[in-house]
Amino acid sequence: MSDWFSPAQLFGYVAFVLGVSCFLQTDDRRFKWFMTGECLAYVAHFALLGNPTAVASSLISMTRSLLSLRTRATWVAVAVVAANIGFGLAIATKPSDWLPLTASCLGTIALFTLDGVPMRLLMLCGTGLWVANNVIVGSIGGTALELVIAAINLTTIARMWRARPAA
């Protein structure tokens, strides 16, 4: 039985809080900072769980979030997407392995090319891929986290949509 209060699980809880906080943000820069923190917590969480694949994926996502705070250069987004694809080619063994990798690519496109509601809508598509992945692999906690993030993201999108200036 897993220890609910082990250091690995505590980092997972921190990632959960930061992930929920991330999708509550209506300011894009704060959104990206919270996402960076969530990814960093996941790096520690997955490292302590002994899952190097998830560590690498979280590091790519963290780097992507930090880079998107500094630049919106297309070549940077292409490089991050290429890193995800290269990572997938190196480790994917079945079609479902591409779900989180595709989600990460969508997140990269969202963070580098979109703002506001459109950014969050594309992130929501990535969340859907993570839900599918987590259901396939039997991750109850991961599925719950992504469903909570989807609900919060939808709520934030609705708040932003209602607050937009009249055309």
Automatic annotation (TrEMBL):
InterPro entries linked: Uncharacterised_HI1736/YgjV, YgjV
Organism: Pelomonas nitida
Coiled coil feature spans: none
Domain of life: Bacteria
Alphabetized UniProt keyword annotations: Membrane, Transmembrane, Transmembrane helix
Amino-acid biosynthesis keyword on record: no
Transmembrane stretches, start-end: 6-27, 39-60, 72-91, 98-117, 129-154
Keyword ATP-binding: no
Pfam families: Imp-YgjV
Protein name stated in the entry: YgjV family protein
